[in-house]
Recover the amino acids of this structure.
C-alpha cells in the first residue's frame, strides 16, 4: 500500500490564501482539506470513505481551529473510522444533542406548550418567562443547577403568589427540557420552595367598607376613568377582570344590561343596569374614544402589542386605588377591588336583600340541590336589589360632607 503523504500545508500558506481572497481547496493529506469560500469562510473538512460512499465532515473554522488542532482532530476521526465508527454519524448525534440556552428553551416552550394554555395562564406565565429570560437567558440549560433556580426566585421582589407562579414556570420549562432530553433531570427537583419564599401567608379576610368609607370613595380624587371604574365595580359587585376586559358591544345601555361572557371565574350572566350606572358607562365610552373596550389600555406600547387596541392591564385599577390612598390619605382602610364585592354583599343584606338574591348578584351558584334544579335567573329581583344598592351608594356620595345625622335622614346609614 502506497504511503499517504500528510502535513502538506503550512500556516504561511493558509494566511496567504486568506489574504488573496480567492476560493481554494487544498489538501493537507489523509483526507484533511483546507477550504476558503467566496464568502470569506476558511474551514477544515475531513473527507473519507465509509460503507462504500464518499463522505465528509466539517472539523472547524480557521484560525479558531489551528492547523495543529485540525490535524489532531482528523487523526482521531481516522482512528475511529478504522474501528467502524462513522465520523459523520458522530457529528449528527452531537448536533441532535446540542446545548441549548435558556432563551432558546423558552422560545421553544412558547411555541409548543404555552400557546395551548388558557389565556389568563399565558398572561401570568409570559410575565415570568420574561423575568427568567432577563435573569438566566444566556445560561446553558445543561449547566443550570438548583442554586441558579433559587437565585432566580430570590432576584424577584414580589408577593408570595407571584413568586409561586414564577416557581411553576421554572418547573414547566425544565420539565419541557427533560422531555426533549436536553437535560436528564430538572434542576428544580429537590428544592423546598417554602425554605426559599416561606409559608404561604394566611388568606386575607375580605373587608366591608363602612358608610363613611363609601362616602369617601364615591368622592375620591382620582382620574375620571379610574373613579368611574371603581364606582361601577362598587355598584355592580362584578370582578375587576370582568370590567377591565369588557367590550363596549357587551354593555347594552339601550337594554339596560351588561352581558358578561362565561369565564373560568363564573358562568355567563346579564347584569341589570340602573340609571346611574348607565350614566357612568356612557362617560367611560366617551373617554375610551374609538376603542372596542370599555377601559382601553393607556400605554401605547401595550396597544401596539395587541394590534393597536387592548384593554386595561389587570393591575391598573388596584394601583389607582393604592395611589389615591397613598397620595390623598383619606380616612379609609386599604382595600382591593375585590373588597368592593364583599362590601356590596354585606350592605345589601343590611338593606333587606335576601341572601339568595345577593349571592346571585355576585354570580355565585346556589349551593346543593337548589343550585342544580333552580334555573330561574331572578333578573327582575336582581334589578330591584341593584336599584336599592345604587341609590344607597349615590346617597352616600352626595352627603359625604354632611353630618351623620343628615346622612341617616337620607337613608344612607342602616342600623
Amino acid at each position: 500500500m502506497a504511503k499517504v503523504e500528510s502535513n502538506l500545508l503550512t500556516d504561511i500558506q493558509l494566511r496567504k490564501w486568506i489574504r488573496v481572497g480567492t476560493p481554494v481547496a487544498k489538501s493537507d493529506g489523509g483526507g484533511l482539506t483546507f477550504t476558503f469560500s467566496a464568502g470569506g469562510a476558511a474551514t477544515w473538512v475531513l473527507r473519507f470513505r465509509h460503507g462504500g460512499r464518499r463522505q465528509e465532515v466539517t472539523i472547524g473554522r480557521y484560525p479558531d481551529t489551528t492547523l495543529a488542532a485540525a490535524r489532531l482532530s482528523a487523526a482521531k476521526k481516522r482512528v475511529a473510522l478504522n474501528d467502524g465508527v462513522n465520523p459523520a454519524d458522530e457529528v449528527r448525534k452531537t448536533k441532535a444533542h446540542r446545548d441549548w440556552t435558556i432563551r432558546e428553551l423558552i422560545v421553544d416552550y412558547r411555541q409548543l406548550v404555552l400557546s395551548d394554555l388558557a389565556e389568563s395562564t399565558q398572561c401570568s406565565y409570559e410575565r415570568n418567562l420574561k423575568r427568567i429570560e432577563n435573569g438566566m437567558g444566556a445560561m446553558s440549560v445543561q449547566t443550570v443547577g438548583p442554586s441558579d433556580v433559587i437565585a432566580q426566585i430570590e432576584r424577584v421582589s414580589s408577593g408570595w403568589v407571584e413568586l409561586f407562579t414564577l416557581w411553576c414556570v421554572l418547573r414547566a420549562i425544565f420539565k419541557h427540557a427533560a422531555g426533549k432530553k436536553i437535560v436528564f433531570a430538572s434542576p428544580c427537583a429537590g428544592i423546598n420552595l417554602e425554605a426559599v419564599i416561606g409559608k404561604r401567608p394566611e388568606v386575607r379576610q375580605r373587608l366591608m367598607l363602612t358608610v363613611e368609607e363609601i362616602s369617601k370613595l364615591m368622592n375620591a380624587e382620582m382620574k375620571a376613568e379610574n373613579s368611574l371604574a371603581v364606582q361601577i365595580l362598587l355598584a355592580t359587585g362584578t370582578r375587576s377582570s370582568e370590567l377591565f376586559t369588557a367590550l363596549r358591544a357587551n354593555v347594552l345601555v339601550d337594554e339596560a344590561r351588561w352581558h358578561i361572557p362565561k369565564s373560568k371565574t363564573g358562568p355567563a350572566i346579564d347584569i341589570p343596569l340602573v340609571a346611574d350606572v348607565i350614566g357612568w358607562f356612557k362617560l367611560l365610552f366617551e373617554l375610551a374614544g374609538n376603542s372596542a373596550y370599555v377601559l382601553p389600555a393607556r400605554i401605547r406600547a401595550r396597544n401596539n402589542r395587541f394590534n393597536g387596541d387592548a384593554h386595561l392591564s389587570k393591575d391598573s385599577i388596584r394601583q389607582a386605588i393604592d395611589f389615591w390612598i397613598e397620595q390623598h390619605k383619606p380616612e379609609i382602610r386599604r382595600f382591593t377591588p375585590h373588597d368592593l364585592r364583599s362590601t356590596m354583599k354585606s350592605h345589601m343584606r343590611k338593606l333587606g336583600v335576601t341572601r339568595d338574591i345577593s349571592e346571585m348578584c355576585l354570580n355565585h351558584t346556589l349551593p346543593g340541590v337548589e343550585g342544580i334544579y333552580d334555573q330561574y335567573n331572578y333578573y327582575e329581583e336582581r334589578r330591584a336589589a341593584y336599584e336599592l344598592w345604587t341609590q344607597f351608594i349615590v346617597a352616600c356620595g352626595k352627603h359625604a360632607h354632611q353630618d351623620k345625622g343628615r346622612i341617616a335622614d337620607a337613608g344612607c346609614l342602616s342600623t
